[in-house]
Amino acid sequence: MHPRNIFKTPPDFTDLAIKYPEFRQVCNLELSGKVCIDYKKEVALKALTRTLLLEFFDLDVEFAPGSLIPTLPLRLNYILWLEDLISCWDSKTVKGIDIGCGSSCIYSLLAAKKNGWSMTALETNKSNLEYAAKNVERNNLCKIITISAQKQNDNIFEELFENAPGISIDGPYNFCLCNPPFYDSQLSTPCNTRNPGKRPPPHNCPTGFKEELSCLGGEVTFVEKIIEESVKYKSKIRIFTSMLGLKSSLSQIIDALLKRNVTNYCTTEFHQGNTTRWGIAWSFFIDIDLKKNKI
Ligand SMILES: C[S@@+](CC[C@H](N)C(=O)[O-])C[C@H]1O[C@@H](n2cnc3c(N)ncnc32)[C@H](O)[C@@H]1O
């Protein structure tokens, strides 16, 4: 985990169960007296994420029924990596774009609440848009988070930069972030590993509806689209970034960058318990540290 990630020290479930009735309801008491939750139950994951957001960030977040329940340590690792990336130049105000904010709008909420960053959150799904807007309102962050509806699934920045009504784009954004839909919608069984037979089944109950988790060509095609549009809108965003769910996607994305002569990129690994994710960042503006790092 990132050295500044507060979840490097696991939260005390007993304290949380005493303080939060919603969390208490999903807790089990082991014979040893240890308080634990069943990560295979969606209701338990929901209560855990809601409780951690309230306790550590004073954020009150609701999720659309059936939508993706974000895991907080990973989202925080990504935000902390962004803090490191943008720290290399002086910026009085930080502005970011959250591509596919989901119903929780978690990245924008964390970025705004923790760091005071101004965020523009893009989303295509109607119910996610409604929930994201309510989450921003409920947490009094409307002044620094703008939710923008994307009409086309295959557009990334075009609608925002060409014709988003009511959004004034005053100077370049510092960064964009993205947790893309991982799976290829053409595959009948979603697969999140290159060696499905060798990997143990996931510890957490899978959450999220199809449109959130999959797209044509999966995450590689989605991030290739970000790369393609980044060339067109290179002056509008200082650092382009995305998370990747599969290690095999990383080399394909690096190839896609090199094909467009983008050599100024860096990668990272996000480690959270048994789950690893990857991050990629590129820029046409600032030399980013090309060293590979792991957090
Ligand atoms: C994997 S989910 C990530 C949700 C949230 N950011 C998180 O990390 O929990 C991907 C999201 O991207 C949205 N999405 C898909 N295509 C999009 C596009 N072209 N523009 C904006 N959002 C899109 C989906 O509806 C979904 O909510």
TrEMBL record:
GO cellular component: nucleus
EC class of the enzyme, as a word: transferase
Keyword S-adenosyl-L-methionine: yes
Annotated GO MF terms: U6 snRNA (adenine-(43)-N(6))-methyltransferase activity
CDD domains: AdoMet_MTases
UniProt-listed Gene3D superfamilies: Vaccinia Virus protein VP39 (3.40.50.150)
Domain of life of the organism encoding this protein: Eukaryota
UniProt keyword annotation of Glycoprotein present: no
Positions of S-adenosyl-L-methionine binding: R75, G100, E123, N179
Entry keywords, A to Z: Methyltransferase, S-adenosyl-L-methionine, Transferase
EC number: 2.1.1.346
Example of a GO biological process term: rRNA base methylation
Family label: Belongs to the methyltransferase superfamily. METTL16/RlmF family.
Protein name: U6 snRNA m(6)A methyltransferase
Organism: Musca domestica
